[in-house]
Design brief:
Helices cover 51% and strands 7% of the residues. The protein is mainly alpha-helical. The chain has one domain: Orthogonal Bundle (hpI Integrase, Chain A), CATH 1.10.443. The strands form two sheets. The protein has a two-stranded antiparallel sheet. Strands 3-4 form a two-stranded antiparallel sheet. Helix 2 crosses helix 7 and helix 8 crosses helix 9. Keywords: DNA recombination. InterPro entries: DNA_brk_join_enz (IPR011010), Integrase-like_cat_sf (IPR013762), Integrase_catalytic (IPR002104), Tyrosine_recombinase_XerCD (IPR050090). This is Integrase.
Length: 186
């Protein structure tokens, strides 16, 4: 069963590359690597990622999708992934699932299957803080570190407060620690 608590983002490029190293050794490495890359570059929930059709990403640089959890329409910004999208979708039909299960093109991979794959990667990395939400949290963490734009990230994640967003991406404790680096009294 999936555990959401204690799931953390991949905070460094090394952690991301290590994760990719193990994904490249999976049975469906092309699918699994692209799923991970699309996730860490869009911040979509895994349930939304696995529900995508080829047409959702191949037909537009800024496609609109409807999020399963919120029912809200979300614009994806895929300009930086165009090369990977073209490469991954070149032999697929527009009506195909973007991430088909191993049983074939007629059904998408299940979130629980992705979770099990990520648990294998986590075991190889000797980590206990990896889950499907790691992808979304990794996006959020790096987006915030790069832009410092918590308001836009809140909007992307549909969160109601900055505190929720910072806690979600694991930034709160890190920021507090930073403030104490040069703080000393007496």
């Amino acid at each position: 069963m999936r555990k959401k608590e204690n799931v953390e983002p991949l905070r460094t490029e090394t952690e991301i590359q290590d994760f990719l190293f193990w994904l490249r050794r999976s049975k469906n490495s092309d699918r699994d690597v692209f799923l991970f890359k699309l996730g860490i570059n869009t911040g979509l929930r895994m349930s939304d990622l696995v529900s995508l059709k080829v047409s959702d990403v191949a037909a537009s640089i800024n496609p609109k999708i409807k999020e399963k959890k919120t029912g809200k329409t979300r614009v994806l910004f895929l300009a930086n992934l165009q090369e990977e999208i073209k490469d991954f979708t070149k032999d697929k039909n527009l009506e195909d699932w973007l991430f088909p299960s191993r049983q074939g093109k007629h059904e998408p991979i299940k979130v629980n299957t992705v979770y099990q794959l990520y648990q294998k990667v986590a075991n190889n990395l000797n980590r206990k803080d990896i889950g499907t939400h790691t992808v979304r949290k990794t996006f959020g963490y790096h987006y915030y570190r790069s832009t410092k734009d918590i308001a836009t990230l809140m909007e992307i994640f549909n969160h109601t407060s900055q505190q929720i967003t910072k806690r979600y991406i694991g930034i709160r404790e890190e920021e507090i620690s930073e403030t104490f680096k040069n703080f000393k009294i007496g």
